[in-house]
Amino acid sequence: MSADDQKRISGEAAAQLVESGMIVGLGTGSTAAWFVKALAARGLTGIKGVPTSEATAALATELGIPLLDLNDAPEIDLTVDGADEIGPGLSLIKGGGAALLREKLVWEASKRCVVIADAAKKVETLGKFALPIEVVAFGHLSTSRRICDALSECDIGMPPRLRLKDGAPVKTDGGNLIYDVACGRIEDPSALAAALKSVTGVVEHGLFLDLAEEALLGTDNGIVRLQP
Ligand code: 5RP
Q1: What domain range includes position 50?
Q2: Which of 43, 85, 203, 207 has the fewest CB atoms within 10 Å of its CB?
Q3: Is 30 near ligand 1, meaning CB less than 6 Å away?
Q4: Of these residues, 12, 85, 103, 134, which one is catalytic?
Q5: Ligand 1 touching residue 11 (CB < 6 A)
């Protein structure tokens, strides 16, 4: 089975978790897009989606899923989203699609978060996938130097690299920039998360810790359910 087929079956399995009337957080990325498509195909009544990016909002609108602003959805029943890496205890790296800030805002406002992914996303230790860090554009080079100091505190010697597309800095939906750090191995994700959060100018990082309740992993043998 191709990775895309694994993503598709995990998105379809997650769509079965949604019930009529639910407020649903809609993730971002290719796996989350399969979920949004499968959810729309179910034709449930009364559901409302809280999108985690402009791209997901556009897809959901195109498919006829009514949307709700996060401000108007103090409690989200269920959020389903992809991940770049799934580590021990369902610790995650997210943000490959530059939507990590809105994703984390929606996840944290949710009663239940389910991560969906192809089998290759499961890892023994987080860090092979470069960790995305969203920073304010103003003074971002200065911020990146202080991110270096925070990384050193966690024994990570790799420098943050500004994410570029076609030679220009990638801008998030919120107008911020993304730095990626090829950490290699993140031995203590909680310590790294705390160190990065302490840097002024860092808006958010892509470590999602203690947030996912379940993972639905698409594999060649079907869906494998993982719990923390
Ligand atoms: C976007 C994300 C995505 O969920 C993550 O990058 C996984 O993407 P895909 O499902 O395309 O592999 O965090 O910011």
Answers
A1: 3-121+209-220
A2: 43
A3: yes
A4: 103
A5: no
